[in-house]
Amino acid sequence: MRKHEFTAEQRKCIEESCIPLGVYQFLNERVVVLAVSDGLCNLLGSSREETVELMEKDMYRGCHPDDLARVEEEALKFARNGDEYNSIYRTKNRDNKSYSIVHAHGKRINLEDGTSILVTWYIAEKNYYLNQAELDIKFGNSFDCIPFTENIITDNCYDTLTGLPNMSYFFNLLEEGRKEFRALGKKIAVLYFDLIGMKSFNGSYGMEEGDKLLRAVAGLLKRYYSAENCSHLGQDHFAVYTDATMVEETLKDFFEDLKYINNGKSLYVSVGIYIDRFEKVGVGTACDRAKIACDQVKNNFFSNYYYYDEKLRDLSIKKDYFLSNIDNAIKGEWLEVFFQPIIRTASGRVCDEEALVRWNDPEKGMFTPNDFIPVLEDARIIHRLDLYVVDKVLEYLKEKQRMGIELVPVSVNLSRYDFQLCDMVDEICKRVDASGFSRKFINLEITESVTSINPEYIRIQFTRFHEEGFSLWMDDFGSGYSSLNVLKDFEFDLMKFDMRFMRSFKDSNKSRIILTELIQMAKKLGISTITEGVEDEEQFRFVRDIGCEKAQGYYFGKPNPKKNIFNIDKEKIRFQFENPRETPYYDAISVIGLNDPSVNKGYSMEVAGYFNAVPMGILEVKDGKYFIVRYNKAYVEFLMETDFLDLEMIKNNYIVESKRIPEPKFCDTIDKCIKTDQWESVENSVENDYVINSFVRKIATNPETGANAVLLMILSIRKPGR
Q1: pTM above 0.70, yes or no
Q2: For residue range 310-361, what is the model confidence (pLDDT) as tens digits?
Q3: What pLDDT is recorded for position 235?
Q4: CA 27, 28, 30: angle at the middle one, nearest 5?
Q5: Helices 369-378 and 310-331 sit at what angle, rounded to 10 degrees?
Q6: Which of 131, 226, 393, 471 would you label with 50, given CA atoms 20 to 30 Å apart?
Q7: What number of other Cβ atoms are within 10 A of residue 667's Cβ?
Q8: Which H/E stretch holds residue 90?
């Protein structure tokens, strides 16, 4: 249907009328203005052009918020198929402070050519009321009592807060608008708006002020795009469709005006733009694509926009594929679990493994976790994947046990959304207990971002996991999410340092300093440590020397599927994996801090004055032989100076046998400390003309080999006569 055109005589008759009236036509799911009278222009205090623009873009701009949705609903019902229209509502006066009462009465007129037009008369009350309180005094709650029929409630098309079309009605408007644009040879743009920081705004100013801001944003959108081109989708999200040719210019002006709405109490906004130039998609998909683009806006310090492009289109197609095939992937075991070794720096043995999942598609090939995990998180079905991985890890442990391979704990990554989607503690407990394995064989890796959900709730879940015997690891510390406050408020057993520290290892000394201090901090907090991303000998020696207990990276082995691990020679595997009966022994050795004596248990204040970056190391004593297990830089220099070892010996070995036996006085004191389990002093022992004073104490005994680990602290080193 085309827009009706009046004859010149008809138009003159309407426009020169002193009665406030408007003549409209309902086309493509929206009201189009055909003519307005002088009386209506006078009532609104605007020119004819301004009146037409107002009635087309935002007919009820000054309408009281409590009346807005009802009036728009009544008008739309009349425009669609009603014969008559009667409505009463409050509208702001020109002073923008007080309200007056408007009665609107409309009739549908069917012309001879079959065109249906809508004529509406407007009558304003002669009495004007200064404010809402005076309106309430005169009319009480009469506006609240205006009846809503069941059809109006059922067919609701407008958002009650902002008066904008709701999502359902907006999709109808967008569909009709798209047809109209295409008929004119124009491209249509769909915009998705997301206010930045609405939660914090509500927390600072209150929900009522937040609602005022949303109404102000809606008003600004109406001014720029017209009311029927906009929608309040819910929460702090809005959508718009408009001509694609001036999108950026209009948005820049919109961003500037946005700063000053609501008396300056405003927020920045992220905007995603989808231009209808790809394959034909439904209006819902068009809005989804605009939202996908909106989610790419990373900067939260000013308003910005992002286009949906070919790259995002490919990601969108991939996303749809993952969601459509997740059931097939689980049932068909396309989700393949890989295992990467974690090495104990003191022994060079595999002490843990991490389970990492890949999507091995029979048609499309291998997908990495970064491809599909964010998709499953957004869809809130990530818990299905994580519990699937737990099941596969338990199967892996059973196969290793059957093959006679030493078992070490396996860490499983949990998403922060897991805790919202199911009782993750109960689900994991049930699975592990049913397998017959001890819960100590499953470690749980969780990023710090999990605490952003509900800190108190997450704290309770952490406590439950600990009470059930699981170890909790903070994953990706230093990745950009980590906060020292999390270490203060939540109980983690281990910190996993992000591989970014290793990536900048060669380029910046800052990374070395920061990592060194973080590891010392962790030891003082009683938290174990792992460094990820170790890729060469230099990096490994560094993390070992600064006291990091465990290391992970391609230097030790890339992630492998279990079939590859099982194909390795069994004897080689048995040598590589740590004997679980020796784990407490190596744990005791690993937690000792060699750069700051005060972090060690049993450290006595009586000897505090002696220690200040002193040479420190850990010796292993067995059958009269001495092995150097760990050392700091000062101690290894001492050992080379006194001919206990040379540089080549420590380059390629984790535990090094001393080239010679220490002098008898030192050996006797070592034997004594092993028996007493106390600090013992070694006074004036002589090694290669050096006179040494030191303290020694037993750390632990290896239950398998009978070897004893001893901590050594050198207090002074001098040559006779000096």
Answers
A1: no
A2: 888 888 888 889 999 999 999 999 999 999 999 999 888 999 999 999 999 9
A3: 85
A4: 70
A5: 80
A6: 131
A7: 16
A8: strand 84-92
Length of the chain: 722
Rg, the chain, Cα only: 37
d(CA 577, CA 557): 13
Residue 378's nearest CA partner among 267, 508, 248, 291 is 291
Q: What residues pair up with 680 in beta bridges, in sequence order?
A: 696
CB burial of residue 277 (10 Å; 0-12, 13-18, 19+): exposed
Residue 162 lies in a domain: no
**Contact status, residue 173 vs residue 161, Cβ threshold 8 Å:** no
CATH number at residue 376: 3.20.20.450
Based on the domain organization, do 137 and 171 belong to the same domain? no
The answer on 536 and 392 residing in a single domain is yes
DSSP for residue 98: -
**Are 116 and 246 members of one domain?**
no
DSSP strands (E only) in 128-259: 188-195, 230-234, 237-243
Asked if 23 and 34 touch (Cβ cutoff 8 Å), the reply is yes
Amino acid making up residue 367: F
b/e burial code for range 151-160 (CB count within 10 A of at least 16 → b): ebeeebbbbe
Number of independent structural domains in the chain: 4
What CATH number did the domain enclosing 285 receive? 3.30.70.270
Name the residue with tokens 């239950």.
703
Q: Are 574 and 663 within one domain?
A: no
With beta carbons less than 8 A apart as the criterion, state whether 73 and 158 touch.
yes
Is the CA virtual torsion 462, 466, 467, 468 positive or negative? positive
Please, which residues have CB within 8 angstroms of residue 639's CB and are 6 or more apart in sequence?
Answer: 617, 628, 631, 645, 658
Tens of pLDDT along 607-639?
A: 333 334 689 999 999 999 999 999 888 888 899
CA distance linking residue 235 with residue 219, whole number of Å: 16
3 state DSSP class of 108: strand
Same domain, 189 and 257: yes
The verdict on 546 and 438 lying in the same domain is: yes
How far apart CA 166 and CA 238 sit, in angstroms, is 10
From residue 208, alpha-carbon distances to 202, 203, 520 in Å are 8, 11, 48
For tokens 């407008």, name the residue.
158
User: Reduced to 3 states, what is the DSSP secondary structure of residue 183?
Assistant: helix
Mean pLDDT of the chain: 85
Identify the domain containing residue 134 by its residue range.
8-151
- 571 and 637, same domain (yes or no): no
Buried b (16+ CB within 10 A) or exposed e, 214-243: bbbbbbbbbebbbbbbbbbbeebbbbbbbb
Pairing of strands 188-195, 269-275: antiparallel
User: Token digits for 293?
Assistant: 């683009």
Q: What is the DSSP string of 13-24?
A: HHHT-SS-EEEE
Sign of CA dihedral 584, 586, 587, 592: positive
CA 215/CA 221 separation, integer angstroms: 10
Dmax (CA) of the chain: 125
In the chain, the percentage of residues whose pLDDT exceeds 90 is 49
Condensed to tens digits (0 to 9), the pLDDT of residues 402-417 reads 988 889 999 999 998 9
CA atoms of 617 and 274, how far apart (whole Å)? 63
* Tokens 């070897």, located at residue: 707
Token pair belonging to 281: 């998609």
Residues with Cβ within 8 Å of residue 140, at least 6 apart in sequence: none
Nearest of 241, 243, 304 to residue 268 by alpha carbon: 304
Q: Pull the structure tokens for residue 325.
A: 């095939």
3-class SS at 268?
Answer: coil
Name the DSSP class of 278.
Answer: S
436 C-beta neighbours (distance < 10 Å), count = 10
Residue among 46, 51, 47 nearest 33 (CA): 51
Which one-letter DSSP state was computed for residue 661? Answer: P
CA 389 to chain centre: 21
Helices 310-331 and 283-294 pack at an angle, to 10 degrees, of: 100
> Confidence class of residue 597 from pLDDT cuts 50, 70 and 90?
low
